[in-house]
Amino acid sequence: QKEVEQNSGPLSVPEGAIASLNCTYSDRGSQSFFWYRQYSGKSPELIMFIYSNGDKEDGRFTAQLNKASQYVSLLIRDSQPSDSATYLCAPKGGGFQKLVFGTGTRLLVSP
Amino acid sequence: GAVVSQHPSWVICKSGTSVKIECRSLDFQATTMFWYRQFPKQSLMLMATSNEGSKATYEQGVEKDKFLINHASLTLSTLTVTSAHPEDSSFYICSARDWGGRDNEQFFGPGTRLTVL
Predict the structure, then answer these.
(1) In whole angstroms, what is the distance from residue A105 CA to residue B2 CA?
(2) Which of B42, B46, B103 lies nearest to residue A98, judging by beta carbons?
(3) Does B35 touch chain A (CB under 8 A)?
(4) For B49, which of A43, A98, A104 is closest by C-beta distance?
(5) What span, in angstroms and rounded, lies between the C-alpha atoms of B36 and B49?
(6) Is the per-residue pLDDT at B55 higher than 90?
């Protein structure tokens, strides 16, 4: 079992719709969870982090965490073509609190 | 947010040569830096964790003698790919942890694209 699992996609949504990105992880010791966005040929940029069960909202983005189910998700409301990118889920854990990245989900938002 | 730079942004070298990549935290002190490698259409793979003033911790399967990491100051870490071969061609990305930031955020450099001929 991979440490972090994400559907590679692509996930296609029309402009203005809600995009739902999901991630499961295997390490129950993970305490913090990060969502990064990566455009093609660029390095990742942080979108959100969450460490408590429940929802956390930041603008058009909502992260949801369920530690019991080892599941974290990212909702993007009012999706825009500029949101088209690969979204990486990364639980944090380990001795150096290192990030473990999933394969990422490619999101395509069509105008 | 905090800024991390990498140099060079891209490099082309001949097989058998060594290449050094620098990673700098510009406006914060980074006691810990991370080096990742990303092949096309794949996720980031952590290569090693670099702590200032101590030896790097390498992930399983990463050859420490081939990928030399030095973290001599709180703002600079270097990765040297020794005796590079075409299979080492990849996108190398560093990140630095801002221990004073929110939830110990990790900021990524812009990456270095290495092509070995």
Answers:
(1) 26
(2) B46
(3) no
(4) A98
(5) 9
(6) no
